[in-house]
Design goal:
By secondary structure, the protein is α+β, with helices and mostly antiparallel strands. It has helices at 23-40, 99-106, 109-125; strands at residues 2-6, 9-18, 50-53, 61-66, 80-84, 87-91. The strands form two sheets. Strands 3-4-2-5 form a four-stranded antiparallel sheet, covered by helices on one side. A two-stranded antiparallel sheet has the order 1-6.
């Protein structure tokens, strides 16, 4: 995680409550609903989606999720027009692992096969 300074931005968003076990479903349907509305207005997101947690009650999370957009977007249904305030925000690091870092973590498929072959060969030749 890294802390970033953010500027105030327009956001179409949905605020809802869900237990943590159902959060991915709630987010998926909410992000889809928001994209349909802004897409039908010809607006493209101005950045990645966000989620803002208003409590930490894992049995009933109060979460607001949406997308920053370059212009004010009208709300419709559950989607409300809003603004993200400026200030500090936590953001995950999004760099993808490289081939080299994956090898250090899980090993390459070749080394796994080679080591398995060596272990099987040793086990069968000692009998």
């Amino acid at each position: 995680m890294e802390i970033r300074d953010t500027q105030e931005r327009n956001t179409p968003a949905i605020r809802t409550s869900a237990p943590v076990e159902k959060l991915s479903e709630a987010m998926g349907s909410s992000y889809g609903e928001i994209m349909q509305i802004i897409g039908s207005s010809g607006i493209q997101p101005a950045g990645p989606p966000f989620a803002m947690y208003h409590n930490m009650d894992m049995s009933n999370l109060d979460v607001e999720m949406g997308f920053p957009v370059p212009i004010k977007a009208d709300g419709r249904g559950r989607v409300k027009a809003g603004r993200l305030p400026d200030g500090k925000a936590a953001s995950p690091r999004t760099s993808a692992p490289t081939k080299r870092s994956r090898r250090r973590t899980i090993g390459s498929p070749f080394s796994y096969r080679k080591n398995s072959w060596r272990a099987n060969r040793t086990a069968t030749s000692s009998t």
